[in-house]
């Protein structure tokens, strides 16, 4: 592989006009496709295999036009102090608002508070329920604007009005965070390379890669039902790996220049060696992202595949466009150790032969491997302890900041009707096979009333055919509580006895039940996903490093860093540690998607650092250095680059911590702390300590496996052989 990539790098350097025009054409084509494609809106949301989804599907059949999974909104009214919602003036204002709410094209129905018994006992709070024909992710902005405008008219009449429900759900805005991350990345790259031109190349190519990837996603959004949220993960990961991969290639190019090679030869060798590491690092990221399909949530699968495509583009750009741009840059990209005039070039050089920070650190670790290993493992183990108390759930309006209208509506409903009112359960009774359908409906209602933790059980509401009914159950506890989850399971446990007594089927759905089912589905998929991703990457790394213990160490180190990161997330967002510093207003369960999302994203980045750092060590070992010296050599050439890449990623992810959206804040914190643990403790401390302890055994591979594995030559041994052969030929000619 190294020989092929070496030739590719030299070709791109020589034919830079052709390569640059090719990528510009691809970017233009993707941009034109995105601009001419019809707007796709948001993709449909479904969770196959869950009881809540089966109930929604049944309701679509038996209650046509009901839009069971459509968005809902609760417009909550509070009377001025000393007044009641039943006062004539207040009642008139509410009825006018209800009329306005029902005029939208996407509105399926609006329930009047006064006819639907939606006024609190003390008469101070009332609410109007709005049902939409489409889900919250598909709702048009015009419908949301009309909802807010109607509430504003009621406020003008003197009422306190807040809006809750998933109708206000929108895709989070992340543009400012990305700009902050790119700005910090630029500063780090300038410090790392000492050159504005060299620092600008990774940023330029990363933006081009993300532009092509996101534009392609936009162009294909309609036919593939990708939706507007699919590009979010692609942008985040594409930007991350795009900068990383270009950083690795440019860094190796400068190192080759420092060894006295001509620029075309340096570009070829940089792509042949660091480019090989980029290819395999990219493959691990693709495996992690495509592996999200095992969860069997269509939206998550599409996001993973789209992000994987963007990563593939980033790899191709690093292998072709980077050497082409290096050809354009010429002598403005300095050899390693030199700075441009603008950044201090021409000043007196440092003492010759003085080892850099990476060399000094690696030498210390090689001398004290046991102490470093124990300190790293014990530290990460301590950070992972809170993960044993991990509670998973999906966010509701109760987890929103108190400054939002959703949270204020949630609190008003809790005050007026009880905390469980924010998460009613919808029990669907399918009595099509029952001899006495009305008796079956009544039986289900009576059984549910006998359960504890229920406040209200409405009479069955049958469909026109009379074979299916809906019973609404209001729990005592808030939607995200363990008590409400237990109630859902208790109702479902009645299904077998109901079926045997009446031949009727019982299903529980609604937003609260759906959240519980999604959390359980994600929880059940975590171990299979880990096994798939880590297992395939383990096999891939065996091919890369031609070792058993090095890939095993890489996988175990990753698991340790992810557990430590989950522990930190639990400590901050579930237990409330440092919540004031992080501006966490409401503690509660960790988002269900967080563990599997963290595994997918962090695993890809962790393997980037592992492959780039350890292939340098493997290269030195293959070229004759002893194991301990190979570790030091790997750090001398790679530590600065890996550190820069990790700092950039931490900065990008940390930008999301400032979000007012608690879930975005949690994702930003979790990914940032995970990259910190993995890059600076696992890769920079535990990895060299383990390799120093293992010595030559680290690179052991059974003879039969050695013969069976393909020789991909990531270390560039073939390049050295070719160089030696060429040199011998020159001597013979002389």
Structural commentary:
By secondary structure, the chain is α+β, with helices and mostly antiparallel strands. It has helices at residues 2-14, 16-36, 51-62, 88-101, 141-156, 175-193, 196-224, 230-258, 263-290, 298-329, 357-367, 369-384, 405-417, 437-449, 482-493, 495-502, 511-545, 549-574, 594-622, 627-654, 662-694, 703-708, 717-733; strands at residues 72-78, 107-111, 125-132, 160-164, 392-393, 425-430, 454-457, 461-462, 468-475, 505-509, 590-591. Strands 6, 7, 8, 9 and 10 form a five-stranded antiparallel β-sheet that branches. The chain has a four-stranded antiparallel β-sheet with strand order 2-3-1-4, with helices on both faces. A two-stranded parallel ribbon has the order 5-11. A hairpin with a 5-residue loop joins strand 8 (461-462) and strand 9. It is elongated, with a radius of gyration of 30 Å.
């Amino acid at each position: 592989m190294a020989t092929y990539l070496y030739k590719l790098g030299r070709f791109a350097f020589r034919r830079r006009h052709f390569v640059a025009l090719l990528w510009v054409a691809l970017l233009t084509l993707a941009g034109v496709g995105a601009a001419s494609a019809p707007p796709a809106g948001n993709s449909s949301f479904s969770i196959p295999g869950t009881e809540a989804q089966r109930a929604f599907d049944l309701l679509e059949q038996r209650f046509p036009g009901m839009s069971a999974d459509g968005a809902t909104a609760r417009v909550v009214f509070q009377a001025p102090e000393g007044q009641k919602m039943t006062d004539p003036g207040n009642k008139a204002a509410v009825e006018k608002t209800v009329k306005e709410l029902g005029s939208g094209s996407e509105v399926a129905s609006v329930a009047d508070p006064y006819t639907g018994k939606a006024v609190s006992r003390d008469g101070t709070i009332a609410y109007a329920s709005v049902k939409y024909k489409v889900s919250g992710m598909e709702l048009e902005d015009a419908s949301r604007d009309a909802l807010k405008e109607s509430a504003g008219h009621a406020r003008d009449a003197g009422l306190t009005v807040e809006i809750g429900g998933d109708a206000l759900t929108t895709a989070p805005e992340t543009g400012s965070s990305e700009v902050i991350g790119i700005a910090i990345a630029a500063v780090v790259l300038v410090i790392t390379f000492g050159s504005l031109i060299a620092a600008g190349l990774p940023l330029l190519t990363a933006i081009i890669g993300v532009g092509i990837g996101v534009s392609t996603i936009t162009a294909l959004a309609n036919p593939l039902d990708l939706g507007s949220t699919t590009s979010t993960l692609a942008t985040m990961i594409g930007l991350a790996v795009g900068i990383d991969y270009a950083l690795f290639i440019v860094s190796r190019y400068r190192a080759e220049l420092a060894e006295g090679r001509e620029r075309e030869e340096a570009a070829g060798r940089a792509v042949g060696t660091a480019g090989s590491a980029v290819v395999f690092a990219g493959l691990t990221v693709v495996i992690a992202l495509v592996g999200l399909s095992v969860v069997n949530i269509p939206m998550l699968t599409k996001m993973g595949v789209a992000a994987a495509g963007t990563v593939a583009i980033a790899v191709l750009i690093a292998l072709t466009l980077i050497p082409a741009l290096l050809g354009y840059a010429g002598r403005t990209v300095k050899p390693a150790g030199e700075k441009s005039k603008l950044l201090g070039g021409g000043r007196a050089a440092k003492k010759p032969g003085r080892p850099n920070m990476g060399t000094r650190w690696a030498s210390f670790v090689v001398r004290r491997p046991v102490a470093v290993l124990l300190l790293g493992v014990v530290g990460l183990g301590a950070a992972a302890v809170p993960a044993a108390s991990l509670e998973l759930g999906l966010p509701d309006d109760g987890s929103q900041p108190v400054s939002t209208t959703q949270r204020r509506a949630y609190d008003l409903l809790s005050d007026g009707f009880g905390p469980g009112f924010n998460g009613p359960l919808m029990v669907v009774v399918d009595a099509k096979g029952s001899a006495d359908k009305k008796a079956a409906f009544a039986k289900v209602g009576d059984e549910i009333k006998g359960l504890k933790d229920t406040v209200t059980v409405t009479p069955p509401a049958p469909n026109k055919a009379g074979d299916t009914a809906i019973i609404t159950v209001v729990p005592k506890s808030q939607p995200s509580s363990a008590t409400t989850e237990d109630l859902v399971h208790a109702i479902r446990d009645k299904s077998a006895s109901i079926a045997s007594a009446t031949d009727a089927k019982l299903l529980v759905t609604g937003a609260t039940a759906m959240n519980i089912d999604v959390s359980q589905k994600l929880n059940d998929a975590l171990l299979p996903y880990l096994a798939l991703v880590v297992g395939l990457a383990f096999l891939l790394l065996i091919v890369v490093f031609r070792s058993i213990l090095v890939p095993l160490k890489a996988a175990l180190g990753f698991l340790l860093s992810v557990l430590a990161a989950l522990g930190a997330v639990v400590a901050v967002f579930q237990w409330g540690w440092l919540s004031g510093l992080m501006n966490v207003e409401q503690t509660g369960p960790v988002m269900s998607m967080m563990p599997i999302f963290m595994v997918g994203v962090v695993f890809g980045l962790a393997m980037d650092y592992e492959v780039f750092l350890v292939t340098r060590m493997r290269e030195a070992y293959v070229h004759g250095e002893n194991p301990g010296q190979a570790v030091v050599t790997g750090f001398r050439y790679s530590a600065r680059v890996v550190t820069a890449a990790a700092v950039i990623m931490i900065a990008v992810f940390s930008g999301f911590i400032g979000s007012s959206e608690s879930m975005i804040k949690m994702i930003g914190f979790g990914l940032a702390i995970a990259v910190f643990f993995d890059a600076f403790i696992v890769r920079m401390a535990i990895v060299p300590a383990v390799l120093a302890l293992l010595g030559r055994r680290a690179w052991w591979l059974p003879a039969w496996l050695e013969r069976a594995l393909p020789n991909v030559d990531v270390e560039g041994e073939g390049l050295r052989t070719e160089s030696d052969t060429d040199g011998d030929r020159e001597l013979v000619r002389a």
